[in-house]
Amino acid sequence: MKKITLSILVMFFAIATTIAQDYTTPNTGVVWTLDDIATASPSTVTVSGNEYTLLGNLTVSENDTFIIDSDLTLLIDDGLRVTIFGAFTVDSDAVTITALDESAPYDGFRFEQGSDISIKNATITYGGGLRVLTEDFLIMGCTLSHNVSGTTSSAVIQLSRGTPQILNNTISFNENPAIGSAANSQVAAKIDGNHIEANNQANANRPQINLGVSIPGMVTDIVNNTIIGHPDNTRAGGIALANFVGGVIYANIAENTIQNNRFGIAILGGNAEVNISYNVIEDNDIEGDPNLRGSGINVMSASAAGMDINIVGNEIRRNIWGITLQQEAVVNLGDDEPNGGNNIFSENGNGGVTYALYNNTPNTIMAKNNCWIEGEESTAEDVEGVIFHSVDDPDLGEVIFEPFLCGVTVGVDDNKFADFSFYPNPATQEINFNNTHLFETVAIYGIQGNLIQTKNISDGHNVMEINLPTGLYLVKFSNGSGSVTKKLVVQ
User: Fold this and answer.
1) Integer Cα distance of 265 and 208 in angstroms
2) Residue 178 · residue 156 · CB < 8 Å
3) Contacts (Cβ under 8 Å, ≥6 apart) of 248
4) Cβ neighbours around 28 below 10 Å, total
5) Contact (Cβ atoms closer than 8 angstroms) between residue 329 and residue 335
6) Is the separation of the CB atoms in 215 and 207 below 8 Å?
7) Residue 302 CB coordination number (10 Å)
8) Predicted pLDDT at 11
9) 147 neighbors 174 (Cβ within 8 angstroms)
10) Contact 107, 79 (CB under 8 A)
11) Three-class DSSP category at 411
């Protein structure tokens, strides 16, 4: 009798350890918490204090909402997936979503088309990434690290459509790139204020931000990010936008710091209208082979008439190449509109030769008003020595680089007017300044270098009304002895 009883107990124990069940919310328009799911299906979610364990796949139906609004830890068992057809909101000060066993990652999150996703202040680790099939997606203030291939295989945050917002996150040390979209997915993402470092730990031939074409007429913004490589990830680039399947790339890549990657920025394929402005692009040379990568900026794009790639105000230092142009690429590095210019180049080169700009196309390239050799007042002969174009190979197009600005000349004006400023900044309707330097004119430019507004100004206190859309602008104050240019943020 004792043997029979023991056998029965063992059998019940075995059943108890294998009854974890998947759960789908009943699609009745209800808001669900983890406690609610644990009550409805205790074999799917278990609770211990503020620690919850997901033991089965969880699906949130189209009319239901799953919300995490308190500080907690959610542990997810090996290979499990959370699928959202309805709404998913994470909004608390400290939410951690991670694997029950770090050596056995969960499959990740899949946000289906039409779902409504908002994730704030969460730490998401040791999973299979976020597959974003929906148009309405926000992730802000989160940390995503040590994630692997699962529901996504090409990026930790894999985008498919719409206008996703990826704001002020830290995305680092993941197996795959940080952010990506398929070549044929039309996406107009806002990627702003993120720290992106050492992603693509698999060391595949992929950049940390890897996007395809845009939604027609809508712009992908990649602004104010820090994108840092890792010396072991020699195949991981910084930012790439590629169009090999049709469509158009519309993008604004501005005020990022891009360092220590395989390359800095690459625009590849046809039909691209892109602004690349005021980025710091340095030391993108970790692969070390000039025959492969290593450009601060590489453009290999044949665009339709009227589509421009403007390269303005960037600081490009110590890459294997400064800027490389391939196939039928045409860019504007500064012309007479005015448009562009004010890029700074320093120590870009390989094999003992400096290459600030390599025009490997048959096209004429406008490249006026740039500083080609930082820290010195150069001659035309000096500048010619760091640009490769028709002078070096008659089959290539000419680079028109005069007039040019270099080191000492620029520095004089900067020091002379170092104490000058205006306020408020950010501004909404007006700016104020005390014209102690006897400036005669003030001009406002877009970040592409296009002139928007000019005004003659007087001595003393001035008020200048502005009526501008939200964004970044340049304000140039000038008189007969010099000028100074300041950044203006309009809210």
Assistant:
1) 11
2) yes
3) 213, 214, 216, 271, 272, 273, 307
4) 8
5) no
6) no
7) 16
8) 42
9) yes
10) yes
11) helix
As a whole number of angstroms, the distance between CA 274 and CA 48 comes to 51
User: What sign does the CA torsion over 277, 283, 286, 289 have?
Assistant: positive
First to last CA, the chain: 81
Single-letter residue type at 407: G
CB-side exposure of 328: number of CA atoms within 13 Å? Answer: 9
Q: Which residues pair with 83 in a beta bridge?
A: 59, 110
Query: Given 2.60.40.3080, 3.40.50.10490, 3.40.630.30, 3.30.429.10, which CATH number is that of 419-490?
Result: 2.60.40.3080
Structure token digits, residue 324: 């490389």
Q: Return the pLDDT at 3.
A: 43
The answer to whether the beta carbons of residues 222 and 240 sit under 8 Å apart is no
What's the pLDDT score for residue 206? 94
Going by DSSP bridges, is the β-strand pair 482-490/471-479 parallel, antiparallel, or unpaired?
Answer: antiparallel
Length of the chain: 491
What is the torsion angle, in degrees rounded to the nearest 10, for the CA atoms of residue 386, residue 392, residue 394 and residue 398?
A: 10
Q: Give pLDDT, residue 438.
A: 87
Strand duo 309-312 + 72-76: pairing: unpaired
Task: Give the three-state DSSP class for 350.
Answer: strand
Alpha-carbon span 218 to 203, nearest angstrom: 32
Q: What is the DSSP string of 20-64?
A: ---EE---SS-EE-HHHHHHH-TTTEEEETTEEEE-S-EEE-TT-
Per-residue pLDDT reduced to its tens digit, 34-62: 999 999 999 999 999 999 999 999 999 99
Please state the φ and ψ torsions of residue 5, each to the nearest 5 degrees: -60, -45
> Cα angle at 141 between 74 and 205, to 5 degrees?
90
**CA trace torsion 46, 52, 58, 60 (10° rounding):** 120
Report the candidate in 309, 339, 338 with the shortest Cα–Cα distance to residue 248.
309
**149 closest CA partner among 183, 176, 180, 181:** 176
Beta partners for 474? 445, 487
Query: In this predicted structure, what is the pLDDT of residue 16?
Result: 42
Which residue has 């402005």 as its token pair?
Answer: 277
Letter for the amino acid at 5?
T
Q: Where are the alpha helices (DSSP H) in 300-397?
A: 380-384
pTM > 0.70: yes or no: yes
Domains in the chain: boundaries:
20-149, 154-416, 419-490
**How far is 372 from 355, CA to CA, in rounded Å?**
10
Give helix then strand counts, H and E, for the chain. 4, 46
Q: Residues in the chain with pLDDT < 70?
A: 1-18, 304-306, 337-340, 407-416, 418, 447-449
Cα Dmax for the chain: 108
* 105 φ, ψ (degrees, to nearest 5): -65, 150
